[in-house]
Amino acid sequence: MNKNEIYNEILKMAKDLFIENIYPTTNMANASALLFNSLKNINWAGFYLLDNNELILGPFQGKIACTKIKIGKGVCGTSARLRETIIVPNVHEFPGHIACDSSSNSEIVVPIIKNEILIGVLDIDSFEFNNFDEIDKTNLENFINILLNHI
After folding, report:
1. Interatomic CA distance for residues 7 and 136, integer angstroms
2. What confidence tens digit (pLDDT) does each residue in 4-13 have?
3. Other C-beta atoms within 10 Å of 19: how many?
């Protein structure tokens, strides 16, 4: 399967997987598992949620992660501050990169915004350099929009 076909399957599954309930954590846990087990060359997929101007570790799949990230710090904090998706081909060249896992070499972070309020970010890391592109950006933003309908 090529990348577009993989994302078509992920988006289709997301529409069926996420349920409207009072537990957004349940949907975010399933979302991180779906991405972690479907995307190629990734070693971490999960969420950081906004709490008192910090991003706090939420549901994820992968190795142990940083538990708090200040807004504006690292890729996740920068994405949250700018409220835009950031693709980093080589995290070692990103000013202020926070290395939670030294095997991560590229990253994509998508802000989660509902009714103009920042909820957090979706963070996905890869052990490959240059693993993420505009196809990932577009599809992960669509993925977040599906998730937002259920949290």
Report:
1. 8
2. 999 999 999 9
3. 10
Secondary structure class of 125 (helix, strand, coil): strand
Angle at 148 between CA 20 and CA 151, to 5 degrees: 40
Cα–Cα distance measured from residue 13 to residue 16, given in angstroms and rounded to the nearest whole number: 5
Ranges assigned E (strand) in 7-141: 42-51, 54-62, 68-70, 86-88, 106-114, 117-126
Closest by Cα among 146, 124, 140, 121 to 58: 121
For the segment 14-64, what is each residue's pLDDT rounded down to a tens digit?
988 887 766 788 899 999 999 999 999 999 999 999 999 999 999 999 998
b vs e for 93-127, b when ≥16 Cβ sit within 10 Å of the residue's Cβ? ebeebeebbeebbbbbbbbbbeeeebbbbbbbbbe
149: Cα within 13 Å, side-chain hemisphere: 11
What DSSP designation does 56 have? E
Query: How far is residue 29 CA from its own chain's centroid?
Result: 12
63: its two tokens: 């190795």
Mark out the alpha helices in the chain (DSSP H runs): 3-17, 24-38, 74-82, 134-148
